Amino acid sequence: MRAAVLHEIGQDKLEVLDDVEAVGFGPGKVRLRIRATGLCHSDVSAMSGVLPQPAPFIPGHEGAGEVVDIGDGVTGLNMGDRVLVCWLPACGACPSCKRGQTQLCLAGFMNAGTPNFKRPGGDVFGFAGTGTFTEEVVVDAGCAVPIPDDVPFEIAALIGCGVTTGLGAAINTAQVEAGSSVAVIGCGGVGISTIQGARVQGAAQIVAVDPVASRREAALRFGATEAVSPDELADAKQRITAGEGFDYVFEVVGKSATARTAYENTRRGGTLCIVGAGAMDDNFQVNMFELFFDEKRILPSMYGGGDVLRSYERAIALWRAGRIDLESMITHRVRLDGVNDALDQMRTGESLRTCIEL
């Protein structure tokens, strides 16, 4: 089958090959035919080495498709079911799951160290234990979440990561209050979803911050009340909050420098929400006096900060009701052979989300 493979960490191009085989099928597993997958910035971060991932590997974790084979012991799934790929399934038995923090379950991460593809030259890993830049993938049954028939594959794919992450940061983690002021730093697919979540929650002012003009323009269409470049943020803070700072600031870049900017633009007693996934050696610093004196809440948000199955259902309900716009987030569509063009479009900020159709 065909798949896009990164041979070594640090390479910036994928090779589309036709000699890849999905492996590992057996009890508790399902085989999926991928129909659509989104390109998420985490895929690029894994390619560059910012996020840990063994190589060679197939990127992609934001996918949707159909069940084509079911292993022994699997219940709740049938042949032909339409599903989205959950890259972080909950085991239901670990301490995090028992506390109701299923988004912190580590069972899914254990899959990342086990190859689920192979080529004549050896094993190939799937990013985050999945790897959706391919025609077929074998995953744990918990990674295959049925979707209603009226949800297109490309919309379901977005809900599988970026939309759930951004919406959940605003709704679950920060719990944005109606009438509040919000700033969102980083307006790619996850940042746009955060903006939509803040709008759903009733924020009065939503300032989108991004260096790319096209993303700032897009942010206004998705609910931002204004959009500024990073060097215009200080002026926006002064105009909107009289210099006090925003009630909520979301960092959706994954860098300590932007996290520090976000902290400084959060009002005393306000909330800084860290949504971006960054590198292990990139340290965010605050001094002990300001940490105590300013009483700013620093809230990391992992995969939307809540039960992902409930988050999927909520995203679908909001989409059906017209409260969030998911179709317009897909700015580019390519076939698998165009994956490297899609990577370039993401790196330059030209795209919000690219849908790879398989």
CA radius of gyration is 20 Å
Determine the fraction of residues in helical runs and give it as a percent range.
25-40%
Question: What portion of residues belong to β-strands?
Answer: 25-35%
What's the main sheet like? 7 strands, mixed
- Mean pLDDT over the residues: 96
Distance between the first and last residues' Cα: 11 Å
Shape: globular
Question: How would you describe what is shown here?
Answer:
This protein is 29% helix and 26% strand. The strands form 4 sheets. Strands 4, 6, 7, 10, 11, 18 and 19 form a 7-stranded mixed β-sheet that branches. A 6-stranded parallel β-sheet has the order 14-13-12-15-16-17, sandwiched between helices. Strands 3-8-9-5 form a 4-stranded mixed β-sheet, with no helix packed on it. The longest helix is centred in the middle third of the chain and has 13 residues, at 189-201. The chain is of the alpha/beta class and 358 residues long. It has helices spanning 41-48, 95-98, 107-110, 153-159, 162-173, 189-201, 213-221, 233-241, 256-264, 288-294, 308-320, 339-348, and strands at 3-5, 15-17, 21-22, 29-38, 57-58, 62-70, 82-85, 117-119, 122-126, 136-140, 144-146, 181-185, 205-209, 226-228, 246-251, 266-274, 297-300, 330-335, 353-357. It has 12 helices and 19 strands. Helix 9 (256-264) links the parallel strand 15 and strand 16.
